[in-house]
């Protein structure tokens, strides 16, 4: 009998609290429950509960939630968030949602389904799928099916690389606000409304980033990814504003940036164009494997920009379910990190001095296991995966130079 390491559930103060069974519908044993606790759709935080074989009755789940979050729930007014959200939607900004994809028609269809269900005025919403060098017509067909039910458009980008796909979206939408979501995610019903609300309530923001939470944790690889870093670690569910000239205690260079990720963000018109867009030598589909969003955030902040982290804008991410896929992902994270540093230095040599100052801390955290990512690893986390991540870091500078040559040739 297969065990399900963690069952993921949303628990909201406005709705009924479900019981959590000790076995899933397929008969697999559930060991723990990861509850995303919300107050009238606003996320408050995680609560992890062990699940006995007999399961957790609804009363036990409710008692645990109130014990941990009762005071915080009590401080919120049931209608306040709905009122503020309605005010924004009454005059909603026009937004184009961008999904960059390559040879993933099934997950893409799932993402598009969630976008078509968004609580957002249809006449203010456009969904653009950038098909990044897919090998067949399956992606185009998935877009055509979704377009029959809503404002979904198709844009081919024949040159592979996520940055090229992102830059194609920028070129096709000059002067527009763009919301970005990946094809291995689904959007919460209020995702875009919350991004827009944060944009309206923070008129000085150049970028708004939301929270990325796991859609499922059904395999050991998915649990290990969440332990290693997930996509909300270091950020939690507390809103924050990062303004480049006044940032203290957190460098845009290191450690893990707490202001969000490119898989869940909204950018104001012209912000990305002012930094030259995304570096085409970075990102998935290149030798570097990633780093394009982190470099863009850093450049925005170093030029005096402002990034708002607004966890009310939720998307759910489907982590890699197999260990081989996770290993490749962690190698890519390491490669993209150090490749990104080379990209920064190439664009702005003054970055080098800051990197030199941060190097001792970075080495202690990476090699000594005291960093944010490694602090929450469980005892069964494979050491080999950490070594794979470090191998990627060592390979990053050479990978970037190789990727630059490929970009130049193309």
Q: Brief overview, please?
A:
The protein contains 12 helices and 12 strands. It is of the alpha/beta class. Strand 2 and strand 3 form a beta hairpin.
What are the SSEs and their pairings?
Layout: E1 3-12, E2 29-39, E3 42-50, H1 58-74, H2 80-90, E4 95-101, H3 105-116, E5 125-132, H4 138-147, E6 152-157, H5 162-172, E7 177-182, E8 185-187, H6 191-201, E9 207-214, H7 220-228, E10 240-243, E11 264-267, H8 271-274, H9 292-302, E12 306-317, H10 323-347, H11 351-368, H12 383-409
Parallel strand pairs: 1-2, 4-5, 4-7, 5-6, 9-12
Antiparallel strand pairs: 2-3, 7-11, 8-12, 9-11, 10-12
Helix pairs in contact: 2-6, 3-4, 9-10, 10-12
Gyration radius, to the nearest Å? 21 Å
The coarse silhouette is globular
CATH architecture of the largest domain: Alpha-Beta Complex
Can you give the mean pLDDT?
A: 92
Structural class: alpha/beta
Helix/strand order, N-terminal first: EEEHHEHEHEHEEHEHEEHHEHHH
Estimate the strand proportion: 15-25%
Largest sheet: 9 strands, mixed
In CATH terms, what is the fold-level topology of the largest domain? Spore Coat Polysaccharide Biosynthesis Protein SpsA, Chain A
Total number of distinct structural domains? 2
Full CATH superfamily name of the largest domain: Spore Coat Polysaccharide Biosynthesis Protein SpsA, Chain A
**DSSP strand tally:** 12
Low-confidence blocks of residues: none
Number of helices: 12
Ends distance: 51 Å
Q: CATH top level of the largest domain?
A: Alpha Beta
């Amino acid at each position: 009998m297969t065990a399900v390491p963690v069952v993921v559930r949303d628990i909201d103060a406005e709705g009924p609290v479900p019981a959590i069974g000790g076995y899933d519908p397929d008969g697999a044993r559930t060991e723990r429950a990861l509850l995303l606790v919300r107050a009238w759709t606003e996320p408050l935080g995680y609560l992890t509960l062990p699940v006995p074989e007999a399961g957790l009755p609804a009363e036990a789940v409710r008692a645990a939630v109130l014990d941990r979050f009762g005071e915080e729930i009590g401080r919120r007014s049931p209608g306040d968030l709905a009122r503020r959200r309605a005010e924004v939607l009454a005059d909603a900004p026009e937004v184009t949602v961008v999904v960059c994809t390559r040879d993933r028609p099934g997950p893409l269809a799932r993402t598009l389904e969630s976008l078509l269900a968004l609580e957002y005025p249809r006449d203010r919403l456009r969904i653009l799928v950038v098909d990044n060098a897919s090998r067949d017509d399956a992606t185009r067909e998935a877009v055509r099916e979704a377009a029959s039910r809503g404002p979904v458009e198709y844009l081919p980008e024949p040159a592979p690389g996520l940055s090229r796909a992102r830059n194609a979206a920028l070129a096709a939408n000059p002067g527009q606000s763009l919301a970005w979501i990946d094809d291995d995610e689904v959007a919460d019903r209020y995702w875009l409304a919350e991004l827009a609300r944060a944009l309206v309530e923070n008129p000085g923001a150049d970028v708004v980033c939301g929270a990325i939470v796991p859609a499922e944790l059904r395999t050991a690889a998915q649990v290990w990814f969440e332990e290693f870093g997930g996509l909300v670690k270091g950020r939690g569910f507390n809103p924050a504003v990062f303004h480049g000239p006044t940032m203290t205690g957190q460098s845009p260079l290191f450690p893990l940036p707490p202001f969000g990720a490119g898989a869940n963000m909204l950018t104001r018109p012209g912000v990305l164009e002012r930094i030259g867009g995304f570096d085409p030598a970075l990102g998935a589909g290149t030798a570097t494997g990633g780093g394009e969003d982190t470099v863009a955030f850093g450049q925005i902040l170093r030029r005096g920009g402002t990034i708002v982290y607004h966890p009310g804008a939720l998307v759910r991410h489907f982590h890699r379910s197999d260990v081989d896929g996770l290993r490749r992902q962690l190698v890519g994270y390491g490669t993209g990190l150090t490749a990104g540093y080379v990209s920064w230095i190439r664009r702005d040599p003054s970055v080098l001095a800051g990197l030199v100052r941060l190097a001792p801390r970075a080495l202690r955290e990476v090699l000594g296991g005291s960093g944010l990512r490694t602090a929450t690893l469980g005892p069964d986390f494979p050491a080999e995966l950490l070594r794979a991540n470090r191998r990627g870091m060592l390979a990053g500078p050479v990978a970037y130079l190789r990727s630059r040559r490929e970009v130049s040739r193309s």
